[in-house]
Amino acid sequence: MTADPNSLPAPAASPARRGAAEASGVDIAPLAGHIGFLLRLAQQRIFDEFHRRFGALGLTPGRYAVLAVLAANPDIRQVAIANALQIKPPNMAVLVAAMEADGLLQRRLDASNRRANMLRLTEKGAALYAGVAGEIRAMEEEFAARFFPDGRDSLVAALSRILDA
């Protein structure tokens, strides 16, 4: 089989990734040039750091996303958040129940549709969000600076172009 002259060379695996792959005896070289695979690994690396920094607060990326959306959209339907964040309704129900039990949000029945829940941050949830939002943005800046000399804005713009396609 001949090489495709239009294909780009695969990026070299990072030392950490090479080490993990070598230790496991798994050759991941066929995936090294796949955007989706690399995005997933990058997401996992960022989530690992997120858990390291914010796990003691009971915060996960999913919980943070719900807090952020509720801070910007008080009294929003649960299903609207699930749709916006692309969280399956059963998973969203579990997430909301746990966050309600932890006192981070409150839900009430929607007066116009008694089958729907309206969500709002509690004082505790709003304080948690306000206390970590800046730190999370700073963490993202650290990661973005590794990828783009212009930092986070360039990375966000590039990822947004993928989502808009």
Automatic annotation (TrEMBL):
* Transmembrane parts of this sequence: none
- Extract the Pfam families matched here: MarR_2
* Domain (HTH marR-type) ranges: 32-164
The organism's superkingdom is given as Bacteria
Any one GO MF term held by the record is: DNA-binding transcription factor activity
Q: Name one GO biological process term.
A: response to stress
Q: Which Gene3D superfamilies match?
A: Winged helix-like DNA-binding domain superfamily/Winged helix DNA-binding domain
> What is this protein identified as?
MarR family transcriptional regulator
